[in-house]
Structures are given as structure tokens and as C-alpha cells.
Design a protein that fits this description.
Shape: globular
Structural class: alpha/beta
Order of helices and strands: EHEHHEHHEHEHEHEHHEEH
Mean pLDDT: 96
Number of helices: 11
Helix content: 25-40%
Strand content: 15-25%
Distance between the termini: 18 Å
Amino acid sequence: MFVLGLQGSPRKKGNSAFLLSAVMQEAKRLGARTETVEVDRENILPCKEYVVCEKKGFCPIDDYMKHRGYTLLRRADVIVAASPIFFYNCTAQLKALIDRSQTLWARRYRLKLADPKAKTRRGFALSVAATHGKQLFEGLHLTMQYFFDAASARYHGSLTYRGIEKAGDMAKHPTVHEDVADAVQDLLSPFLDRRRLLFVTEQGAARSQMASAFAQIHAGAHCDVRCAGIRPAEKILPAAVGAMRQRGIDIEFLRPEPLSPVTEGWTPEAVVTFGAVDGLPDFRDARTEAWNLACPGSEDIQGWRDLTEEIKQRVQKLTDGLA
């Protein structure tokens, strides 16, 4: 599983940063891959309301979201957003990222494209506030509810703390470590005992991505599905994206990943390769299959349709056997 942390505070070592760090450390202890984005330190421009996303599914703004942000949100099994309360909501820095998630909302609700992880992805919020008002976190909860919905995640819950004002207050909180341990265990429990399935191709740019998407949709509840390329391409083949889009499945923002980080600390139980794959490690005791399915030419629309159907059928058979 992959846990994405969004640190919305402009303070590098503030109380919400401490809280998010504690959550991410606990997630890593339970076996998760983790990555934290310091939102204030990335070039994330606010939404300009160009409306291009609602018509074409893309944001024309050339910044962090285009090159990295959307990919991380799509890759994540769990999204954890952290922010202090500024005027009864999250910081402007985190809000900019949230507003730019309108692109994901548009792809889901305007273009009717399904994120392969939509059935299993979870969202969680962390927040601290200096005062003690009863309504301190109401604005934040509403914002997170709709942010996670746009990102195809279910808002699973939150940890919020009042009266946290001075540096180090959160570290001194008497129950924070117990709170975090309990919350992370509950948040990640559905992901902990899943079967481990890996799809590999030379470039990780088409067949492995398609197979991974079908496996997520068909068996994400009981399979931890990953895909990689031995020598990964820079992006997924447009023909593969188009073939999946015809089926209403959205793999647009995913990117090929190299094998090493994908399998670090994680040993697959089943490995599927496509075509010639040189340099694949020996995953001892893993069930292995080689699917002799070649990519059609970029203009062969029917060929891509046939390939998509064949991969779907094989993935269903494979994952049913891993249930």
C-alpha cells in the first residue's frame, strides 16, 4: 500500500508537521510505502477557473500538480492531509492543492471516468487549532469531505486537537502517540493482509498498467496490486490510456515506476510478465506467469480493444485464484 501525506502548514517543524510525521512513521512501521509532500515548498498555483478540466479533463496550468501532484493522488491507497486551522479551515497552501483537484472531480463526474482505486482508497485528516471553540473544525471537515470525494477516496476520519498553539505543544500531548497508533491501525487495517500481486513489463507503459487497473477494480479489496517497468518509460502509451478510457477506466495520470522502489520491503506472491523481461529478480516462492500478449500498433484501435478484453479476462481469472 502507498500512503501519501500532504503537509499543509507553512511551518517546517510545527505541530501539524509533528502529527503528520507520527502518522507516516506508524504507517511505515505497518509496512506502507510513504511519501510526504510539503505543500508550501512546491510550486502549486491556485485554480484559475479556466474550465478546461470540465471539458477535456486536464488543467492547463503548468506546475507541480501537472508534473507530480495528480500522479501521487492517483497512486495513493491512503491520503492523509494535515493542516493547522486558519480562519476555521485549512491553510491557503493546502487549499490551493485541494482546489486544483477540480480536475479529478471533472474526470469523475463530468467525463464519467472511474479511478481504479476508487473502491478502496481512504482519506484521513489531521489538524490542530490554538483555541477551543466548538465549531473550530467544521469548515475543515466539509472541505476534506469534498476533497477526498474528488480524489475518489472515502473520508475515513480525523485526528483534531484544540489548544495547540506553541511550538512543541503537540509533542507534549499526553495521548498523541496512543491516538496515532490506534488511528493508523484502524485506517490501514483493510490493506494489511492482502495478497501481493506484481505486473512487470520492460517499460511499464501499457500492458502492466492496464492489468494493474483491472486488478484494482476486480480485486483491490483482497490484492495489493503493483506494476513496474525494468527500464520504465517516461509516460504511459496514449493508446493504452485511450483503450481503457473507452471502458470508462481512468489511468491518465499514472506514470511507469522502476522495479526497485515498487518492491522495496515488499515480496510479491504472484508475478505476471508480458513479453521479454530481462533483469527481473528471482522472487523465490512467487507464483509466476508469462502472458504472451503484444502491444498493437498505435493506430490499431481494434487491436487495443482486443488486448484490453484479453487482459481483463486473464486478470479476473488470476485474482479469483488469489482470493
